[in-house]
Amino acid sequence: MKKFYALLPFLGLFLIACEDDTPIDTPEPIPVEYTSGSADFTNYVAVGNSLTAGFSDNALFIDGQTNSFPNMLASNFSLVGGGSFEIPFMADNLGGMTLGGNPISGNRLILSFLGASPSPTPVTGQGTTEVSNKLTGTYNNMGVPGAKSYELLAPGYGSVAGVAMGTANPYFARFSSSETATVIGDAAAQGATFFTLWAGANDILVYATGGGTGVDQNGNLDPSTYSRNDVTDPNVFAGSLDAILQAMTANGAEGAIANLPNVTDIPYFTTVPHNPIPLDEATAAYLNSAEAYGAYNAGLAQLQQMSLITEEELAKRTITFSPGEGNAVVIIDEDLTDLTAFNPALINMRQATEDDLMVLTSRSFIGTLADPNNPTSINGVAVPLADQWVLTPEEQDIVETALTSYNQTIAGLAAAYDLAFVDANTLLNELNTDGFQQADGSIVDATFATGGGFSLDGVHPAPRGYAIVANAFIQAINTKYGSNLPGVNPLDYTGLYID
After folding, report:
1. pLDDT per residue over 307-359, tens digit each?
2. Cα 77 to Cα 79: distance, rounded to the nearest angstrom
3. 62: which residues sit within 8 A by CB, 6+ positions away?
């Protein structure tokens, strides 16, 4: 012990000497040498719809286009010889478009704190993007918001005159090469060495966001007869994607293709509860009385006793309210048995259940008055919500059936054309269920407005969500082509545009 204490002064002198005379060298980080593997990123072209364009907060605008996942990919590709990535930028950050000076689309949304609670509100001002002001040149981002699979192949889809007639797409009309051009024709003409394809979401999404108001066109091979809200026939979808890939790979280009996410995983369908109605005791009693739904319930019971409906349907259609929170809204359900021939008052209505998905826009409609002069005409309570406000289980089945078929097609085409495959379906499901933990410990998930994954329209990702998508593409590309691209840091991108 004495010997140990005797050494302490010398030890102290040694430490002092080290501090004063011997600096500690920190090794320089070894630079990473990035390689493209077998891929050639010299000329990258992105094909798709709004998800490719960078659509966010219900609009397309400059910052959103800059933060699109293809632009993030292009920044990675530039590390290994990738060239410039040209984008058909909108005229401003408002997002609204005009045709002949007349507004044809609204501005992007921001979170407004002016009311009782924060709510998505369009930014003020008039967007300066005039559709008839044609852009010149070629563009690497060929994402066209709103486009369905077969519309990417449609001649005249970028016609300014067609926009005025409702037969063409205003986003593509801004930068199409001619009035008769097709999106894929213009994309293929650029001679891409590498491409990404993420298309087909609108073939079911428009039906779903419309509350299932369209028609399932399964079996109809003529898309010219489809309405906007219809679900595309699986064979039409398969033929369209195959034609797109034939065009994009004709000169030997390699690429990556992504499947489609389940639309019911997005905040547009997971935010508004089926039972948001609070009632006082007097109102609940009135709604249950013979003057209101009591008569409807009695009429149903009478027809059930006549075996015109089952006991199960009687229970499903019986409408009751209780004092307090948590009353379910009343909805129209066209899949119920039509009883109006027996009693015109027995329309196809019932209360929503947890299996029904209320669309995001219903949050500002439920509780409003159907008739401003009648204070009892409350939408969702005394007045049933129309089909457009809810996606019922039967309608969800139509979406799921189509999605399953579409994704089987995409997986098969990825193998047939030897492309990198991105499982966006699983990615978005994970974002919805568990979220993704970031380097700082934060979680990015699909919670509306606060989760960081989705923008305020509840359908399209926020910039941070697009970064997660970009990394999924990078991972698939690295795996397929032997590249070692670094990806992007989602924390470098905002979880929500503030202004």
Report:
1. 999 999 999 999 999 999 999 999 999 999 999 999 999 999 999 999 999 99
2. 5
3. 89, 90, 92, 93
> The tokens 């998905």 sit on which residue?
357
Structure-token match 């008739």, residue found: 371
Task: Record the tokens describing residue 191, joined without a space.
Answer: 């001679």
Tokens 């690497």 appear where? 140
CA dihedral of residues 226, 230, 233, 239 (deg, nearest 10): 70
Give the architecture (CATH level 2) of 44-269+394-492: 3-Layer(aba) Sandwich (3.40)
Two structure tokens written together for 425: 């379906």
Residue 485, SS3 per DSSP: coil
Give the domain ranges of the chain. 44-269+394-492, 277-351+357-391
Report angle CA 9, 11, 15 to the nearest 5 degrees.
115
State the residue for tokens 């140990």.
4
Q: Where do runs of H (alpha helix) occur along 233-307?
A: 234-249, 267-270, 281-288, 293-305
pLDDT digits (tens, 9 = 90+) for 156-204: 999 999 999 999 999 999 999 999 999 999 999 999 999 999 999 999 9
CA atoms within 13 A on the CB side of 28: 3
